[in-house]
Amino acid sequence: MSRHARGALGWLAVLASLAGCASPPRSVVAPSAPAPATSATATAAADPLGPRPLPAEPPAFQPAPPTVLAGPEGSTVWLVERHGLPLVSISAVVPWGSAAEPAAQAGLAWVAADMVDEGAGTRDALAFSTALDALGAQLSSSADRDTSAVSLQVLASRFDEALGLFADALVRPRHEARDFARVAGLWRGALQARAEDPNDVARVVTAAAFFGEASPYGHPHDGTLASAARLRLADVRAWHRAIWRPDAATFVVVGDVTRASLEAQLARAFAGWKAPSSPRPALAAPPAPAAARGVRTVVVDRPGAPQVVLSLARVGVAAADPDRARLDLLNVALGGSFTSRLNQNLREDHGWTYGARSRFQAQRGVGAFVARAAIRTDAITPALGETLKEIRALAAEGPTADEVAKVRAQAGGDAVEAYATLHGVSAALAASAGLGLPPDHDARALASQRAATRDDLAALARAHLALDDVTLVLVGPRDAATAALAAHGLPAPEARDAEGRAVR
Questions:
Q1: Which of 21, 168, 194 is nearest to 107 (CA)?
Q2: Strand, coil or helix: what is 416?
């Protein structure tokens, strides 16, 4: 027999033996039910490490107020030491902005702030910018209705050098004619572009119509084309000298710096900065516009525009009003967040807008409550109705219990976010300083919001969201805007141009 045949017979024998040895199937017996667990069994099954510890509720965040110091030549210093990062942020704030400027010179505070970094001390504009870049420093300046501010952020190791440039910008600006010509040209270009932006137009026209031309808040803080044509470099120089005086300035300093080193650095950098003998300019704190005007409507015609910007304004409160913090809380439910009533209705439910917002303005004088959204032109009639409905519903019923829980959580989260960075802390404190609010204003406001009940917010809604005295501005095609107003029984509109002037 060949080797291959013997191998084949061997495999057949193996297979046969396996088949013969297969066990018969076994019967399956159902398992009996387990005996009830006894206390001893339960104890044995317990976690040998004991009960799991539960973490304690974290303490509520509370913004730490700054340390208040006497600064150079009668100025005030608000200091928050933060040594986690080698950075320092400093802002200088004075309590004068566009509300203190003559209406005929609208934008004076704005362009004066823009000129701050256009050369200072011994350096022209290019050399000044180069010196800042060499230190890795960021310098910015701004002016709004009530304040003017200059801010600087730099590495702590370069703070002393950068502080010299900062002092030059405030105390020794060059204000050269060629720099003013360039800045003024860019300013005029920005004003022309503003007239083409319907949201900016709505901002300007709403202020003009709501506050009135005679109010310091009635003209745009960034000026008009007419005022830009009139303004001269001599006006900017005089304005800067008048408002940047140490006896009215507050320095807000946040970051990796100590009190002892800061006091010495400020004294050295601002040596010789003296307050002028002239009295301080008057602080503007306009009262609320005259009440009982009823509903007023304004249209700015933009033929063929695909959207109509809807802007509604009513009387608000001053920044120092005791109710202000809780009104901000109430506004989160109405139009101050993505999940607010206005945004959910107009954007999420109907798709008429990319976003709807509202706010209570923070101003030294009485500000306005403003709600605004850019609406598809074909949907402006129903969108106007839904906007009015949402505001009236909140005014009549107040927020729901779920909304109160949500807005409280968001207020706490917003406070944490604002105080998480040097820039955020500096901006928050500078805003308070410029408006004459106390150093611990943010802590007080947050405590007031946390203590607010649903009944508290409902009472504020009834008092501050009634729509019996409002100004309604529509920026878009006149026919669509006028038809929307008529459909809701609102008065016929007056016509205004992009800078808020009446059109005859």
A1: 194
A2: helix
Pick from 367, 285, 372, 287: nearest CA to 324: 367
Strands 76-81 and 250-255, bridge-based pairing: parallel
- On average, the pLDDT of the chain sits at 91
Cβ atoms of 79 and 253 within 8 Å: the answer is: yes
Q: Which of 234, 253, 269 is the last residue of a domain?
A: 269
Question: Between 78 and 50, where is the model more confident?
Answer: 78
Tell me, yes or no, whether 18 lies in a domain: no
Please give the Cα distance from 462 to 470 (Å, whole number).
15
H or E element, residue 310: strand 307-315
Task: Please tell me whether residues 219 and 338 are part of one structural domain.
Answer: no
CA distances from 342 to 203, 336, 349, 445 (A): 19, 9, 10, 24
347-378 pLDDT, tens digit each: 999 999 999 999 999 999 999 999 999 999 99
Same domain, 354 and 469: yes
- Indicate if the pLDDT at residue 28 is higher than 50: no
Residue 172 lies in a domain: yes
- Other Cβ atoms less than 10 A from the Cβ of 312: the count is 24
394: Cβ contacts below 8 Å, ≥ 6 apart: 330, 333, 334, 341, 461, 465
**Percent of the chain clearing pLDDT 70 (strictly above):** 90
